[in-house]
Amino acid sequence: MKARIAVLPGDGIGPEVTAEAVHCLRAIAAKFHHDFELIEAPVGAVAMDAGLEPLPAPTLELARAADAILFGAIGAPRYSDPALQVRPEQAILGLRRELGLFANLRPIVPHASLRHASPLKDELLEGVDLMVVRELTGGIYFGRQLRQGDTATDECRYTIAEVERIARVAGRLARARRRQITSVDKANVLETSRLWRQVVTRVIAEEFPDVQLEHQLVDSAAMLLLSRPAGYDVIVTENLFGDILSDEAAALAGSLGLLPSASIGDGTRGLYEPIHGSAPDIAGRGIANPYAAIGSAALLLRHSLGLEAEASVLEKAVAGAIAAGILTPDLAPRGTVAADTRAAGRAVLERF
Ligand code: IPM
Ligand code: MN
Asked: Is residue 243 lining ligand 1, measured as CB closer than 6 Å?
């Protein structure tokens, strides 16, 4: 097949890990006789350094015209002053909103050979296989923001339609899995959460009667995610709660450097990015873990291009490299020699 893929490496370790994902996409194209056109563009702090907006208009146009977007990471300490009006993070928020990418899928399946890397006890990790479905274009991230005198305001709003469509994404995913949804909210305090709970309850009852639904308050869910993680199948939640809970869930896998994500909307076009950030502390050293970025490329093949066989070849190659102990410093056991980013990328390529 022919596909046009926008590559937006962004900041910090973004370019390093994205380069490995790009090698993998090229190798998949060669092996399966696809024609992938990969076009790179600046985004985030890197764009600001060049005197551009965080999300330059040509970059947004490229993303719009693409079948899928491979994204690296965003953010830099040099642009983290709270007094700044223009911030690198506006780029990823702008892409999500402009492209209508309202659902962020974050699968979390701890790898058997990496139990040592998680702070949790072995027996708690047994059977963990969960999917966080994070609402991505609503809530407090996109409400009115205001600073007046000594007061700051962040508005949190949700519409019925926004909750309905994310509930449907969760319902469809649950059907292809273990048919169990946990909806996470703060309905004992927030009005948006009470709307969320009513709408999710109705959509699942009417359209997914074969799927089991439970509700949890976010504070309790944050605890249960670590004390009985195997109890979850699909977790559906609003933007801010999903951001926080999915980083927390990364502790189950042992490293943020392993977790990919897919941001999707109504059509097939999606944006694929590791859930880790730009990690400025290790940027430029060639030691970042590329597996989350490569895993994101696999999700791109599956969700946007419909290439299931190719996606699973890539995922199996990553699993094989991990099982063979090719691990970057975030995962390598103490006393062992860690692989660098390139070596980990090559270990994946060698496996297909
Ligand atoms: C993520 C990131 C972003 C978010 C930041 C960089 C704006 O943390 O994708 O999870 O909060 O959504
Ligand atoms: Mn985050």
From this structure: yes
pLDDT tens per residue, range 293-313:
999 999 999 999 999 999 999
Interval between CA 35 and ligand 1 midpoint (Å): 31
Mean pLDDT, range 185-198, rounded to an integer:
98
For the CA of 246, the nearest atom of ligand 1? 10
74 close to ligand 1 (CB < 6 Angstrom): yes
Q: What pLDDT is attached to residue 21?
A: 98
Domain ranges of the chain: 1-105+255-352, 119-253
Kindly write down the DSSP assignment for every residue of 17-82, as one continuous string.
HHHHHHHHHHHHHHHHT-EEEEEE---THHHHHTTS-SS-HHHHHHHHHSSEEEEEE---GGG--T
Q: Which CATH architecture has domain 1-105+255-352?
A: 3-Layer(aba) Sandwich (3.40)
Domain 119-253, what architecture?
3-Layer(aba) Sandwich (3.40)
Residue nearest atom 5 of ligand 1, based on CA coordinates: 89
User: Is 48 a pocket residue for ligand 1 (Cβ < 6 Å)?
Assistant: no
pTM listed for this prediction: 0.96
Asked if domains 1-105+255-352 and 119-253 share a fold, the reply is yes
Model pLDDT for residues 263-300, shown as the tens digit of each residue: 999 999 999 999 999 999 999 999 999 999 999 999 99
